# Entry
Amino acid sequence: MNVDYVKSILPHRYPFLLVDGVIEEGEDYIIAFKNISITDPVFQGHFPDYPIYPGVLIVEGLAQAAGILLLKNVTGIPLFLGIDEARFKKEVRPGDKLVYEVRKIGERLGTVQVEGVAKVEGDVVARAKLLLGVKRR
# Structure
C-alpha cells in the first residue's frame, strides 16, 4: 500500500509524513517503510558533510506506523504519549529503505503500548516501546 493509503489514515503531511507505504498489516501489527532520500529537508543540517537520519525521526516514524495501526477503525488524531527503552544500533543514511515493524503489546484505558523495531536491509537500526493514544474528533 502506497503513500496515498498512508495519507488516507494519518493526518501528517510533508515534510513530517515519515511513512511512505505499508508492506503488511494485521490486527495487531504493521510493517511499513520510508525511503530515505538525500533530498529530505533534515539533511540540510544533520549533517551536510556526513548525512545521518536522526534517531528522533526514526522513533517518530515508528509512532506514525503505529498510528496507522490504531486509526484503522477509529477516526481521530494519533497521540504520541511516551517512549521507553529506545536504543539506536546503526546509522541510517540516504539511499536506505527504513522498515518499521510495529506490534501491539498492551492496551489499557484508551492507551496502546507497542513495540517497534526499525531495520535497514534486515539489520536492526533502532528499537523502542511506545505509548500511544487517539484524540477522537
User: Anything to note?
Assistant: The radius of gyration is 14 Å. Residues 3-136 form a domain with the Thiol Ester Dehydrase; Chain A fold (CATH 3.10.129.10).
